[in-house]
Amino acid sequence: MTMINATDTVHIPANMVLVPYEEYERLLTAEKNDAYRKKLEQSLEQIKQGKVVAKTMEELEAMEDE
Predict the structure, then answer these.
(1) How far is residue 38's CA from residue 48's CA, in Å, rounded to a whole number?
(2) What is 18-65 written as a DSSP string?
């Protein structure tokens, strides 16, 4: 990582935004949470549409041995 001193001249591209690291981490977490929420919503919609497969514990255990 390159450290920048207060006296350094830094050229920042017009499309770049600088944010504190803590804010960056918060934004990443929010993005991951949003993606997870969307997956949960898709799963719920599949359940509502009856697009599920039900297995008993015995059936799952039998599949494990295959």
Answers:
(1) 15
(2) ---HHHHHHHHHHHHHHHHHHHHHHHHHHHHTT------HHHHHHHHH
How far apart (Å, rounded) are the C-alpha atoms in residues 36 and 28? Answer: 12
- Amino acid at the residue 1: M
Blockwise average pLDDT, block size 10, the chain, 66 residues = 76 83 93 95 95 93 89
Burial 46-63 (b: 16+ CB within 10 A, else e): eeeeeeeeeeeeeeeeee
Identity at 6, one-letter amino acid code: A
- 57: tokens are 């514990």
Q: What is the pTM of this model?
A: 0.53
Token pair, residue 39, equals 């997956």
